[in-house]
Prior knowledge:
Blueprint: H1 6-17, H2 22-33, E1 39-40, E2 51-53, E3 58-63, H3 82-105, E4 109-114, H4 120-136
Bound molecules: zinc ion (ZN).
Zinc ion binds at residues 65, 70, 72, 74-75, 114-116.
Amino acid sequence: xxxxxxxxxxxxxxxxxxxxxxxxxxxxxxxxxxxxxxxxxxxxxxxxxxxxxxxxxxxxxxxxxxxxxxxxxxxxxxxxxxxxxxxxxxxxxxxxxxxxxxxxxxxxxxxxxxxxxxxxxxxxxxxxxxxxxxxxxxx
Length: 139
Ligand SMILES: [Zn+2]
């Protein structure tokens, strides 16, 4: 049974999809504090990556676990409209893979950070790994 009307649903979705989410801001703030300068939401690139280092050809995605269908503790399918969401999120996962592939073909390095990796207990490790990646791929 459809318990959410179309308008409400599209409102929910636009919220989930919105840019400048909390996880994104966390990562951006961290990188900025470390002296990194970057571009955000580069629409010219496939998937308009959340953070881009143009010169070093690095694209970083900060993915919300729900919207991008991450197989983790945070992710739960909504109890209503299960089929709808399943299909929707499968498509999102698929699209993420396609976009990543397109970026790789453009000779970009792609790095993905998940929302669940930014919880207090994991955030230090996540940021350390990110810095390692950036240092290794510096041109
Ligand atoms: Zn996750």
